[in-house]
Amino acid sequence: MARYLITSALPYINGIKHLGNLAGSMLPSDVHARFRRLQGHEVLFICATDEHGTPAELAAAEAGQDVREYCDAQFRIQKDACDGFRLSFDHFGRSSNPPNHELTQHFGEVLEKNGLIEERVSKQIYSIDDKRFLPDRYVEGTCPVCGFERARGDQCDNCQTLLDPIQLINPRSKISGSTNVEPRDTAHLFLKQPVMQDRVRAWVDASTDWPALARSIAYKWLDEGLIERSITRDLVWGIKVIKDGEVRPGFENKVYYVWFDAPIEYIASTIEWSEATGNDWKRWWRHTDGANDVTYIQVMGKDNVAFHTVSFPVTIMGSDEPWKLVDRLKAFNWVTWYGGKFSTSEKRGIFMDQALELLPSDYWRWYLMANAPESSDAAFTLEQFQQTINADLANVFGNFVNRITRFAASKFDSVVPDGGAPGAHEEKLAKEFAERLAALTRAHEQMEFRKAAAELRAIWVAGNEYLQVAAPWTALKTDRDAAAVGVRTGLNAAAIFGILAQPFIPDAAKTVLDALGVPEANRTWPKPDDAGVWDALPRNHPITPPDVLFKKIEDEQVAEWAARFGAG
Ligand SMILES: Nc1ncnc2c1ncn2[C@@H]1O[C@H](COP(=O)(O)OP(=O)(O)OP(=O)(O)O)[C@@H](O)[C@H]1O
Ligand SMILES: [Zn+2]
């Protein structure tokens, strides 16, 4: 048994997440956590909301709420949506909770002691009418790179260039709209990342089992050369900068920058978990407390990679403390929505709460993972969604289970039939199954979700083909024993299919396994060479046909959703 620490990129707090966010971080990490648990490993799966920074303040202002009140409400909404999607976090924390404050302040102090943080005076945009400095998104203006007139202080949405507010042409306050702004001197803390350049590069060089996307982004940043970054902002909402137990002089209206504190929340959320459950968090995070045998996996979309391969490692390594670093980093490209981006700010695409109003979570989970944006961006279309669900879940998996359980109910008294012996058809099925199970297991272990879904689908298809040739309904007319073998094999196949489906579609899998009376203890991941799977259900053991597992998606539904969500 091994130990896996799995973290999903933290969903930002400014509103419910869309299906792109789900597919690029939380869902794949959940599928992997479920898979590793089924293999019998010890898993700790951690997530949290990322709550600081200007977007949260701006969203709260737009909602007419105090920022704390806004974050409290949004946290609830996000947590409910995560539960609705069956995301099996061991803990879903909040970056605004006390453990993250303490730990972020700890890292700040240690890094300064180690010579990696320096206080410096720099020019920031000050709004005379608002009587305050304007960090990041509090300023808008013309992009110095592409001329886009609504570029934000931290980034241009038109050309994606990362910006400093001071670079904007014709800056104006996002709060009052005032252009009565000027650069003024103010002190900030700078993280001296260049000092760590060689150590970070050596660590990336050694991380040979990261997927290509993660490595290439890390090298791009390293090749461009790490820069000194300001890690504080002129804001009130956030984590205070402390020196010798007091607010740092001159920093009364400043907090740590959100990208400094957010990844620290992976650890702090684990501390929240330990406080809630009495478990020991250190054995997951500290090499001196037993974390040496932990494999740490991070999952995220591509825009987060640099912060996880370079910035956060600078914090961790720079502390010279025995913290665990990521071992495997799985990064995703974008899920796109009809040629554009899913967007929270522009409310474009389908959001997690809306999706659950339309269909149960398994439908979405399956489609998003079977079409995961792994080697390139992946288009979400309602037409392809319909086609995938109807083909894979309704016709192949659902139909198999319903057919075989109903036949067993009507012709074999709702029990697993005894009698007969396996022949050539069963042998062929078992052989194909063993090969595909090995491939499916490998794909899951390598976190290749599309491949895993394709192998699982192929296993279901093999089951259907088997039923086609074994045809117990025909055999029953002449040879009850032959029909019994077909039904028994079919029911055992349904059980195996359900077991293997658990990481992707946990609800439907549970329905199948409950209907077949498979005990919890027997729902673990099988070994490819385990021939016993075909005779695992006890003979004469009662079963109940489940209700229809997956309803087909009709053309009218697609048309209605397309109109509602602006598709096409
Ligand atoms: N369209 C997408 N496809 C796949 N992953 C995405 C997509 N959009 C965001 N992500 C990932 O989702 C995770 C959570 O994102 P976060 O809450 O920070 O929102 P975001 O990146 O600001 O997206 P948006 O601007 O659309 O709200 C991150 O790992 C991010 O990379
Ligand atoms: Zn631009």
UniProtKB/TrEMBL annotation:
Q: Which UniProt keywords apply?
A: Aminoacyl-tRNA synthetase, ATP-binding, Cytoplasm, Ligase, Metal-binding, Nucleotide-binding, Protein biosynthesis, Zinc
Is Cell inner membrane tagged as a keyword?
no
Provide the binding site for ATP: T344
Question: NCBIfam families in the record, alphabetically?
Answer: metG
Binding of Zn(2+), residues: C143, C146, C156, C159
Residues of the Methionyl-tRNA synthetase anticodon-binding domain: 416-566
UniProt short sequence motif 'KMSKS' region, positions renumbered to this chain = 341-345
Q: Where is this motif: 'HIGH' region?
A: 11-21
Q: Which family does it belong to?
A: Belongs to the class-I aminoacyl-tRNA synthetase family. MetG type 1 subfamily.
Q: Where is the Methionyl/Leucyl tRNA synthetase domain?
A: 4-404
BP GO annotations: methionyl-tRNA aminoacylation
Substrates-to-products reaction catalysed? tRNA(Met) + L-methionine + ATP = L-methionyl-tRNA(Met) + AMP + diphosphate
Report the gene name: metG
So which cofactors does this thing need?
A: Zn(2+)
InterPro entries referenced in this protein's UniProt entry, alphabetically:
Anticodon_Met, Met-tRNA_ligase_1, Met-tRNA_synth, Methionyl/Leucyl_tRNA_Synth, MetRS_core, MetRS_Zn, Rossmann-like_a/b/a_fold, tRNAsynth_Ia_anticodon-bd
Assembly and binders: Monomer.
Where in or outside the cell is it found?
Answer: Cytoplasm
Q: What is its EC number?
A: 6.1.1.10
Tell me what this protein is called. Answer: Methionine--tRNA ligase
